[in-house]
Design goal:
heterodimer; A: mainly alpha; B: alpha+beta; 6-stranded antiparallel sheet; 5 helices; 15 strands; rod-shaped
């Protein structure tokens, strides 16, 4: 029994090492709050441990973790929408890419449904139908959200450029 | 607007090692508590499935058509017919029925050596066991005796004391022949080695009520001793149906 527990500990540590940062990024962008993001990542791995799901491959495992994490984020936002959002100075603590910090800030200010699809599409490289499966929505809804998300980001970006006088 | 910038910006976010270790620690605590929580369900299901499978694999060959535990050996009842054909019946799968041989013996002029003796129904039924790793077989008859048909010379036939000492209680007189047939009493029980069954051609002799009807159902207990020292027992019920005798497993 001791060996089994030790093996399971190694397994969960492997999963955290592999997917922990990826989940934290997604959760941080969606929730805009470090503590909430950590809570959701923690909850996601606990669900992983307690349900012990079986996967066809690593891609399946990754998609499952993203689905659980984004659902948890959605629930947390629903019940905790007045939580203070992280401002750009706090964001610097986590984001090493200082040049694109403002892009990240723009992304975080997007509505939940738009930034989630943008994250999965541009950052995680999922295709439209794969995002549809992960978020349990239709492919056309994903396309619309992508389109609208891009428009908002472009619009905000342009506005910032004008303000900055570039 | 280059959306690749989003990718670079997001990918530059790193979870701190402190946070990662905190998450790992919490997960390990949950992991240690987990076996008592849901292993009960999982292992119960697995154990039940395994037990059912095992009982099916092991149990089915040992359960007979009546749903009772079946022994690992087969009993064959056999007898020679008038035309010297052997009649076989596997008692594990069917009921065996044979004609009585009392009249045949009486027609042959059967006489009691001592002048008395119980009224007996004679049969030509013999038993044979087949199975693996069997050392010996012991047959025990609840009522009656096992008997053996023996061939006697004229000299032996004339020696009454010898006949009695050999428990040859009945002889048939065959006029004009030096050879006679005798019926030797073996007793109500005998043991035979598995490999020597052919040497023991013992048949059943069962007491009757005076009208050639056996008084009650007779039980033959067949006890098989295996080479590993284990024993198994199977009972055979012997009943009479008119001029026939039937054997079936109890």
């Amino acid at each position: 029994m001791g060996k089994l527990v030790a093996q399971a500990e190694l397994d969960i540590e492997r999963v955290i090492d592999r997917y922990g940062s990826m989940l934290f990024r997604i959760c941080l962008v969606i929730l805009c709050n470090e503590k909430d993001a950590e809570d959701v990542v923690q909850d996601t791995f606990i669900i992983y441990l307690t349900t012990s799901p079986t996967f066809h491959d690593q891609e399946h495992e990754k998609a499952w973790l993203i689905t659980v994490a984004t659902n948890r984020c959605k629930n947390l936002r629903r019940f905790n929408f007045i939580r203070k959002h992280m401002d750009i100075s706090e964001l610097q603590l986590y984001c090493n890419d200082v040049e694109n910090l403002s892009v990240l800030d723009d992304l975080m200010k997007l509505p939940y449904k738009h930034k989630t699809v943008l994250l999965l599409y541009y950052v995680e490289g999922y295709k439209v139908d794969e995002i549809a499966k992960i978020l349990n929505v239709t492919a056309s809804a994903v396309k619309k959200r992508l389109q609208r998300g891009r428009e908002i980001v472009r619009h905000t970006y342009r506005k910032e450029k004008i303000i900055d006088g570039i | 607007m280059e959306f690749n910038k989003i990718k670079n910006a997001v990918n530059s976010i790193e979870m701190s090692e402190t946070m990662k270790n905190r998450i790992k620690e919490n997960c390990n605590v949950i992991e240690k508590e987990k076996p008592m929580q849901f292993n009960i369900k999982r292992w119960t299901a697995v154990t039940c499935a395994f037990a059912i499978l095992l009982s099916l694999i092991i149990g089915i060959p040992f359960i007979n058509k009546n749903g009772e535990l079946q022994v690992a050996f087969a009993i064959t009842a056999y007898a020679l017919s008038d035309d010297d054909h052997q009649l076989n019946a596997n008692l594990s799968t069917e009921k065996a029925t044979f004609e009585l041989s009392t009249e045949d013996r009486m027609d042959g002029g059967l006489v009691s050596v001592s002048g008395g003796g119980a009224n007996l129904i004679f049969t030509n039924v013999m038993l044979n066991i087949t199975g693996e790793d069997i050392d010996s077989i012991t047959y025990t008859l609840s009522t009656g005796k096992f008997v053996e048909d023996v061939t006697l010379t004229a000299q032996e036939r004339a020696n009454k004391d010898w006949l009695i000492s050999e428990k040859i209680n009945f002889i048939t007189s065959e006029p004009g022949s030096d050879i006679s047939q005798g019926i030797k009493e073996i007793g109500n029980s005998y043991t035979v080695n598995y490999d020597e069954q052919d040497k023991y051609q013992y048949t059943l002799a069962i007491p009757h009520d005076g009208n050639n009807v056996i008084v009650e159902d007779v039980i033959i207990k067949v006890n098989v001793k295996y080479t590993d020292g284990n024993n198994e027992q199977q009972d055979i019920v012997v009943t009479q149906e008119s001029n026939l005798i039937s054997l079936k497993l109890k």
